Structure formats: C-alpha cells, structure tokens
C-alpha cells in the first residue's frame, strides 16, 4: 500500500488552535513528525499518537539551517516511501514561512506519493487578534526580517510593516540562533530611512500555552537595538503617515463613473415602424 | 497523556475554564500535585517546565518557502552565502 503525507498545523496555543481534521490526522497516523515551538506542545502530541518523532534534534547551532531542513524532509519522506501514513505536524500554520512542508509535499508529489497540507492558526492570525490590528484598514506588509534587509524594498509607511524573526536580523550564515546588536543596528538604520526614531513599534509574541502571557511591548524605534528579543519575537511597525490619495487613478475612475451614469440615464430608444 | 498537559489543553479549549476558580477545581479534579497546581495558578511557566522535565530551549526559527529555481540552486550549490539569502 502506498504511503502518504499530510502536513498539519497545530496552531500557536496548545489545545486552542488545532482544527478537528488536523487532530484526526495526528491521531490516525502511523508516524508523526513534530516541529513544535515548545516542549509542552511536544508532550501534548505524544499523548495523541504513540509514534511521535521530534525533528528538534536536527537543529544545531553553527549548522546551516538549509541542510537541517533538507535532512528533516528526508526523514519524513523515508517513512512515506516505506508505505506508512505519515503526518508532519508544525506549530502555527504548516505552510507559512515554512519551507519543510512545502519541500516535502513537492518531493512526495514528484515521486507520485499522495501529499497534502491542512492549515493551522498562524502567529499572524494571533497577532491580528491580540494587537487589534485589522490588515484591511491600511494594508499590511510582511517580511522575514533578514530578507527585508538583504533586498531593496519599497517600504509603505502608510501600511503596517511586520518583520518576522527579528532576533535573527541580518544572519546570512543561516547557522545562528540569534544575531547581536551590531546586526540589529543595521536594521534600525534601514528603518530610520523611512520612520522617525521616536516612532512607536511593538514587540509581539503569541501565547504558546494557556498560562503564557502574550507579549506586547511598545517601545521607540531607537530602542530596538537594545531590546530583549527571542526567536519567536515579531516586530510590528504601525503606519507613520496617512494614506495618500492616488489622484491620477481616482480621476480615471471618476470618468468611468460619469460615463456609466450617462449611459444609464440615456433615454431608451424604441424602433418606430 | 500527562495530566497537567491535559489541564493546559482544557484551559485553552474549554471556555468554562477561563477563570481562576474553575481552573482550581479542574486541577483538583485532575489530581494535579500541589507544586504543579501552584505553577499553573501563578502562571509560572519556568517552574512547570522544570517539574515536567521539559527542555526550555526549543528552536522555532521559521523560513519562507523558496521558488523552484532557488530550491534547485540550493540543492546543487555549496555556496552558503548564496543559499542563505532566501531560505531562512
């Protein structure tokens, strides 16, 4: 019998965010690989299935994470190839900022092995709820922090800017678990090209377990260099300016509106024989 | 499953356990020992980690998915700098 792979998300807060179908996949799998954000969640998964294998041991400081991720993919696919029903459970959403699940599914499909993904509640979802931000209000732009630094971006200061994994800002080696203040100062200098130094920013962390407290530290942009950051800290930069109307597009649209009204009000012609 | 983990799961998934009294009753019903109960009530995550022998150092770095071209390059290349840029 052919093996199969389902990548599921367990959400951010243990027990609160997992979907019924994700839970069912975990319970019915022959092997579950787990990549959780804390040890409580790992123990929780162990209670749902008798063969849960943590992928945490593949991480090593100084080891390029790209190698780590490929090793994780191989570990998962090895079991699928032997014909087992495999679930890979990731904290949050398995497809958001997560190359392992995408790579594993793509490789499985290339080998004609059934593979699919079930979504989970992501850190982004929690952020909107916890901080009361509606991304539809002014728009919201998300980047992985180092990627934001490595490439030229058009920063829109009238929208929210959200930088994920800020504690690893500027790490080109992929081998560090955190970068220091010198790296972070480069990020702050980059942001100062767009925002005033006294602009209020938010350091955010979602709850991992019920007794955790969500982090919502409001500091000034200039204070970011010295701030305490963890691997799961997210930087939220609210808009510093109001949205500016695009007069050119608005004029074009107004012309279309006028034409539509004109056509609508045109007297109906009837054929007289 | 460990009883405390079950308690944490219930606290997060059942709306009737959103106040301290209900949590205390739940801890009692689940026969959680005094030290673990105190950690839950005072929201002392570090104490609970120690009592359950849970490793506090979990790595949760995430990494955007790359485009096909980039992934192919990553697999073929040994140039760490090149592949590090996108695949965090």
Pick out the low-confidence regions of chain A.
none
Strand content of chain A: 15-25%
Q: What's the SSE pattern of chain A?
A: EHEHEHEHEHHEHEHEEEH
The total count of strands of chain A amounts to 10
Please bin the fraction of helical residues of chain B: 55-70%
- What is the helix/strand order of chain B? HHHHHH
Output the radius of gyration of chain A: 24 Å
Set down the secondary structure blueprint.
The complex is a heterodimer of chains A (273) and B (88).
Chain A: E1 4-9, H1 20-28, E2 31-35, H2 39-46, E3 52-54, H3 65-81, E4 85-90, H4 99-110, E5 115-118, H5 123-131, H6 135-138, E6 140-144, H7 145-150, E7 160-164, H8 181-192, E8 200-205, E9 215-220, E10 234-237, H9 247-265
Parallel strand pairs in A: 1-4, 1-5, 2-3, 2-4, 6-7
Antiparallel strand pairs in A: 7-10, 8-9, 8-10
Helix pairs in contact in A: 3-4
Chain B: H1 3-13, H2 20-29, H3 34-41, H4 45-51, H5 68-76, H6 80-84
Helix pairs in contact in B: 3-4
Describe the structure.
The complex is a heterodimer of chains A (273) and B (88). Chain A contains nine helices and ten strands. Chain A has 273 residues and is of the alpha/beta class. A five-stranded parallel beta sheet of chain A has the order 3-2-4-1-5, sandwiched between helices. A five-stranded mixed beta sheet of chain A has the order 6-7-10-8-9. In chain A, strand 2, helix 2 and strand 3 form a beta-alpha-beta unit. In chain A, helix 3 packs across helix 4. The termini of chain A are far apart. The mean pLDDT of chain A is 94. With 88 residues, chain B is an all-alpha fold. Chain B has a domain at 2-52. Chain B is 57% helix and 0% strand. Chain B has helices at 3-13, 20-29, 34-41, 45-51, 68-76, 80-84. Chain B is globular, with a radius of gyration of 21 Å. The two termini of chain B are 34 Å apart. The chains are: A alpha/beta (273), B mainly alpha (88). At the A-B interface, helix 2, helix 3, helix 4 and helix 7 of A face helix 1, helix 4, helix 5 and helix 6 of B.
């Amino acid at each position: 019998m052919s093996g199969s792979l389902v990548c599921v998300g367990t959400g951010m807060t243990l027990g609160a965010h997992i979907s019924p179908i994700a839970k069912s996949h975990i319970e019915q799998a022959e092997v579950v690989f787990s990549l959780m954000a804390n040890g409580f969640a790992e123990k929780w998964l162990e209670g749902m299935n008798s063969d849960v294998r943590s992928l945490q041991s593949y991480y090593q400081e100084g080891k390029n994470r790209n190698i780590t991720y490929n090793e994780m993919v191989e570990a998962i696919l090895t079991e699928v190839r032997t014909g087992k029903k495999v679930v890979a459970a990731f904290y949050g959403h398995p497809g958001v900022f997560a190359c392992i699940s995408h790579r594993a599914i793509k490789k499985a499909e290339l080998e004609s092995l059934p593979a699919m993904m079930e979504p989970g509640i992501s850190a982004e979802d929690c952020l909107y709820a916890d901080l009361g931000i509606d991304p539809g209000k002014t728009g919201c732009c998300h980047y992985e922090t180092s990627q934001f630094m490595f490439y030229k971006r058009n920063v829109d200061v009238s929208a929210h800017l959200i930088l994920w994994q800020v504690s690893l800002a500027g790490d080109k080696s992929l081998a560090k678990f955190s970068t220091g203040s010198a790296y972070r100062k480069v990020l702050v200098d980059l942001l100062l090209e767009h925002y005033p130094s006294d602009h209020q920013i938010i350091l955010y962390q979602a709850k991992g377990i019920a007794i955790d407290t969500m982090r919502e530290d409001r500091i000034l942009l200039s204070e970011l260099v010295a701030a305490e950051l963890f691997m799961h800290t997210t930087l939220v930069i609210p808009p510093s300016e109001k949205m500016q109307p695009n007069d050119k597009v608005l004029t074009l649209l107004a012309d279309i509106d006028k034409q539509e009204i004109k056509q609508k009000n045109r007297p109906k012609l009837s054929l007289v024989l | 499953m460990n009883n405390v983990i079950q308690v944490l799961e219930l606290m997060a998934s059942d709306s009737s356990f959103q106040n301290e009294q209900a949590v205390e009753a739940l801890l009692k019903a689940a026969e959680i020992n005094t030290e673990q109960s105190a950690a839950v009530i005072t929201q002392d995550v570090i104490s609970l980690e120690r009592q359950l022998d849970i490793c506090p150092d979990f790595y949760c770095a995430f990494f955007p998915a790359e485009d096909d071209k980039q992934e192919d390059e990553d697999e073929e290349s040994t140039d760490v700098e090149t592949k590090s840029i996108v695949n965090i």
